[in-house]
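User: Predict the structure for this protein chain, please.
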Amino acid sequence: ETIVSKRLSPLYSVNILHLGVWENSLPVYQNEITIGRGSSSFPVDLRLKNDLEISRQHAILAYQPDDSLSLSIVGQNPVKIGESFVSNGQTANLNWEDTFQIGNYVLNVQK
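Assistant: Here is the predicted structure, written as structure tokens:
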């Protein structure tokens, strides 16, 4: 007997703008993703390449049970959210459609 599982739908998508060009829209299926430059010893879910201002593991984007998002900064350099900067060790709440900048990448989240 063949069992067909129901296809998971993404919780949200992350749109990625790099140097003025929309590069990608990444569907996100898990509650938490790690964003950064990545390396073999520092794996990330969303890899932002070729920018040494970005830490190997720079931020953690988390989907909350109340349908909101938070961004925790774990990298050395701050992340710009709107007009504010969020530094290492801090967590900020994000609204849907908010834009944030890590190095020379601009990202936004969409339902």
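The chain has a mean pLDDT of 93.
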